[in-house]
Amino acid sequence: MREPDSIDRGQLVVLRNRKWDGTPHWVVPGEYLGRDGFGHWIWQPEGSFVSKPGYGFYAASDALVMVPHSGNHVVTFFDELHPKDVEIYVDIATDIRWGELHAGRGFEVTLVDMDLDVIRTFNGPGTWIDDEDEFAAHQAAMSYPEPVIEAMRAEADRIYTAVRDHAAPFDGTAADWFRKARA
Question: Alpha-carbon distance 152 to 120, whole Å?
Fold first, then answer.
């Protein structure tokens, strides 16, 4: 399902990314903050454990994930302490779904990470589409269907323009959610 049936502020939300071939990718826990017209907001404070097979780390800065109501992407907004100066990181993705964790312990958001990312930094070099080489390599290695390739490329271009132009929600909307999370 694209929207959770019911979810309350403070509930655990685990984001589970996988690749097109089913290979596990990133797993990131967070705390549900709420929803607005753009999507559902999840708090991932500094010190959250972020992992993928063979690699893990404790986040050096606060982050917010916004799972949109529609579209083929999931957005992470970072605070100014991000070690690489990243402000916005958008994963172009498909098959975004909400589900309940075992025994009612929270929720999970699963998605297929399609390699392309849109990134904006606080102080430069600006906004760009990242991992186009990985997207090209995986098209062949994982046999992406042509309609999926076209849809992901179109979504990356659409999101790139919105992020570059500071269109909502890439216009500072996250600042209010950061304040709510820290309150």
Answer: 19
d(CA 7, CA 108): 11
CA 13 to chain CA centroid, Å, is 13
The answer to whether 91 and 74 have CB atoms below 8 angstroms apart is yes
Q: Is 75 helix (H, G, I), strand (E, B) or coil?
A: strand
Residues 6+ apart with CB under 8 A from 5: none
Joined tokens for residue 14: 């685990």
In this structure, what DSSP letter does residue 5 have? S
Residue 60 confidence (pLDDT): 94
The pLDDT of residue 103 is above 90: no
Q: Are 19 and 138 within 8 A, CB to CB? A: yes
Buried-exposed string 111-125: b where 16+ CB fall within 10 A, e elsewhere: bbbbbbbbbbbeeee
pLDDT at 124: 82
Segment 57-70, tens digit of pLDDT: 999 999 999 999 99
Global pTM value: 0.95
Q: How far apart are CA 137 and CA 139, in angstroms?
A: 5
Q: Give the three-class secondary structure for 158.
A: helix
